[in-house]
Amino acid sequence: MDSGYRDRYGRSADYDEIPSPMADDISTSPYIYETLSLPMRNATLIDYRYMPFVGNGHLATTVLSDWIFVNGVYNGELGWSHRARIPSTNAIDVAFQNQNDDDLAAKSYMLNVLRGQWLTQLNHPEVLVQVKIYAHQYYHHLLVTSISAVRQGEVQARDHSFTVTNNRGRDSEDINFKADAPCSGVNVPSLDCVYMMGDIRETEKEDSSRTRVHMYYTRVPETIILPASTQSQTWLFVTSIDIDDAKAKLAYNKLAGITVEQLEQSHVDAWQNNWDDGMVVVEGDLEVQKVLYGAQFYIKSSLPAPDTDQERNQFYGLSPGGLGKGAYAMDYQGHVFWDMETWIYPGMLMLQPQLAKDMLNYRINGIEEARARAALHGHKGARFPWESAFTGVEVTPDICVPCRELQQHITGDIAYAARQYVSATRDIDWLVNQRGCEFIIDMARWWVTRAEPDPDTGRYHVRDIMPPDEYHEGVNDSVYTNVGASLAIHLANYSACLCGQEIPQSWYDVATKLVLLYDEERNYHPEYDGYDPEDESLNMPQNKPNKIVKQADVVLLGFPFHYKYSDPQTRENDLNIYREVTDPLGPAMTWGMFCIGYKEIGDYTQQEQMFYESFRPYVREPFKVWTEARSGIGATNFITGMGGFLQTVIFGYGGFRLYLENLAMNATLPPKTTSLTITDLNYMGARMSFEFTANSMNIEVHEIITKFPLVMELYDDDEIINLQAGQIYKRDRQPAQFYTTKASSCPLPLDTIIKDGAANHHGTLPLFLIISLLVTWISFVDGETI
Among the four residues 265, 349, 679, 745, which has the most C-beta atoms within 10 Å? Predict the structure, then answer.
């Protein structure tokens, strides 16, 4: 079977076998997914593609699978680099030894995303057995499994024996673990500790050091017994993993003196704090509630836990399948793409900016390799790889050479993520002392040297690239790519000022004179030079017409790029033209961007249709695991799609828009919902919660850092409010904006790029635009400067 959809390596979405039948989610709770049967490939094999993972940003495992993955632990050279499989020591299942008893036990399976916990339950008339699996949210080196057996009913007590199995799987093909050994220096008498250590077998680069993995884990017995004399009993199995032996050992030793109940409660409390730090909730539609909770859970589970017992290691980015996926030749091998910055990052920035900063710092950690990548083709600055893993070197496999060489827009995507971070935080310390300015300026420097001047027109071209639309390669002047490049250079000018530096004036010339294609007759933006939305000739995967676009591309100009359309009709035409030619089998994020776009132009019918298109075809029951493709599979537990969906709620229906000068808001409710709540949204150091209903909105200000006093301007009420911490502002639902009165002395970038077809082709701004922008800047900076 071939679905017709091709993943970014050009493979059919069904390369990993056709989908299995899905089980039902029987829970009516918005944050609990419960089923009486697991997804199965056949009668005996669990389909782990649709099983959830539990993680904490340091380690993760797909529940009951034979693998554990650890942040930053990869094996394989360059394109073969993939997450190194650690044999599972916590994939524990239990059954009654007596077959009659086992037949009497009603089995159920549950993922509770609020508690970050998996539960297998055997409900026998005489005893209730529960197996809980979780990646500890506070003791983040620990993967925990507990088994509890509690008597119930009025029958006479008897011994109950249980068979315990652990799906450890084969020996690791990625790490040369030495034989199991006693745990030296461990003092947890209640646990039978075993130690394993090994190095990865192959590094990404010849001169890279070999990552060493240290594991302390509890031996799993073959049987356990609940004696007739015992009312209840609990067994604990814990794995601690790190690349630093001292850290792994310390984490395991912290189990001494902690009860199983205390260990679990500290995990639950830490997850509650994580949720309280920022989340999005709707009421009134259980389907949307569940999908929204799940999307946030899987993304958060792949990001560093905000509060941990030991200092966290360097974060190594988000891959399309999350930390619980990424084995060799599966789920893009755990590589980091533009998915992180473009699709997952924006929502998390608004909820937990520290985690967004972790994502940017992953890129800064690899900046030397990005500089080497630029120099390889004679350019200056930093060109980030299409795929990266541990070292930051380009690791796109040879299966997709055009992706590796031509998807250069990723450096614009990363620069735009940095722009959003500065917009949300104005974190001067990050810019000045944590290499933020260096990072931003180096990306702009690459674009300046990458752009090719045209002596006949005075314009600049970016030729021979692949846009986000991966169906077309080797094209020139991709609109999305060029706008991203221009924004990157403008940002460098602004950031340099914040850091007390300057960039050459010639850079600004490149930013304003990059070619921006525009079709005056159709009043729309062609995707690249020569693109025609009516071209029916066949030269595409699966013999699709040339006009077919794989995924969101030009439509991304309006959001997230906030490109200033001189004619609103152009934005509408871009949406309608590309809606007709976008591959209907494309990835979920595409429809989320159309959803946001149609909200902007007031087409609420199309907005609702695109909203449902953005998740329903991609969510697999019962655990709300997303697949990359709507028909077939592709990557699984596809947090890229989840990130796009989260954006449709925050920036689509929530109507939030983040600019360098302000945060705008114009909320409506998702279909069939009665309220939309965003807790602990972060802006300029302030924490605010928003609750929207059909007619009202409540805005609670939890905290305002005095460095950035905030103003809320309500448009319908024509009211300006100096926000105060601890206050709740109740108003009719209406558009608003937030901005700080402690403005920067640095003028905001003009973000100008002259489109082809306009009267002026040489980059001189119209006088009225200069005056308008100057007035806007003067009014904005009329206040105390930093």
Answer: 349
Other CB atoms within a 10 A radius of the CB of residue 439 amount to 23
Sequence letter at residue 752? T
d(CA 227, CA 158): 7
- What whole-number distance in Å separates Cα of residue 574 and Cα of residue 589? 17
Residue 294 to residues 29, 111, 127, 385, 747: CA-CA distances in angstroms?
12, 10, 31, 30, 41
Token duo for residue 446: 């690459």
Range list of H helices, 383-503:
401-406, 409-425, 428-433, 436-450, 479-498
Per the residue annotation, which of 204, 369, 470, 613 is the catalytic one?
470
Helices (H), 733-786: 767-780
H-only helix segments in 286-395: 286-302, 345-351, 353-365, 367-375
Give the pair of three-digit tokens for residue 449: 């040297």
Tokens of 37: 């049967």
Paired tokens of 339: 């998915």
Tell me the pTM: 0.94
- Contact between 678 and 689 (Cβ < 8 Å): yes
d(CA 141, CA 149): 26
First-to-last CA distance in the chain?
61
DSSP 8-state class, residue 653: I
Count of all residues that appear for the chain in the document: 786
Q: Which of the listed CATH numbers 2.30.30.230, 2.70.98.50, 3.40.50.1100, 2.30.110.10 matches domain 36-281?
A: 2.70.98.50
Residue in the block written with tokens 């828009």: 657
pLDDT on residue 19: 63
The reply to whether 719 belongs to the active site is no
For residues 166 and 631, what is the distance between their CA atoms, to the nearest angstrom? Answer: 33
| Segment (H or E) for 590 | helix 588-601
Determine if residue 498 is left, alpha or beta; phi over 0 gives left, psi from -120 to 50 gives alpha, anything else beta. alpha
Quote the tokens at residue 505: 């004036």
Alpha-carbon Rg for the chain, nearest whole angstrom, is 27
Q: What pLDDT digit, counting tens, does each position of 10-63 carry?
A: 776 554 556 677 889 999 999 999 999 999 988 889 999 999 999 999 999 999
